[in-house]
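tool_call: predict_structure(chain=1)
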Amino acid sequence: MSLDLIYFKACPFAQRTLIALGHLGLEFSKTLINPMDKPSWMFAVSPSGQVPLLKVDEQEVLFDSSVICEYLNDTAQGNLLLGDALQRAKQRCLVEFGGECQMAFAGLLAAPNEEKFNQVKTGLLKKLAWLEAQVDENGPLFAGSQLSMVDIAFAPLFLRLQHLQKVVPIFTDNDLPKISRWSMAVLEQKAVQESVEGDFSMIFKMVVGSRGKDGFVHKQMNQEK
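tool_result:
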């Protein structure tokens, strides 16, 4: 079986699939796409023209990061979804929720001014406060010591929050102690670290400049120079 991951370097959802591929030890090739110049064939295989896409045996194409990660887990006979049917379903809910949190984070970068930024931040913090109550008390990862699909779903968000907090404070360890501990443990995972290509701080600055040029975060970032 051949696997080809089609992705944008800065895409958080593509990063999920890179983490899963690395953790599961699957061999794959990569096709890097320029998001500003998407090839026309992408729209023939992806209804949204978005990444990640996974081409299987040079014929079939899967889209949606959560679907791709589950397929990879099944293919490798992995254990990224833990427990019985109900527990696995709850983890799928959290993976979906991770996407909602990621989109809220994107709203922070696009906020045109401090007022809008704070509005979006309030919404994201409400989501994270709910998530705080779901995290395992002992950790270090979401449900113990074993990397799960939930950890993979939130890893890109945690990485981006880490870089944003160097520019604008979002929350402190005291505000969300379990998430703070959990995010640190996730970002220390080998598969997570190896999913980042190049200097992520430069990638993050590029994303801020692209999505929020002259917005609140962009201006705060430029003030740091």
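agent: The CA atoms of residues 16 and 94 lie 14 Å apart. Proceeding to next step.
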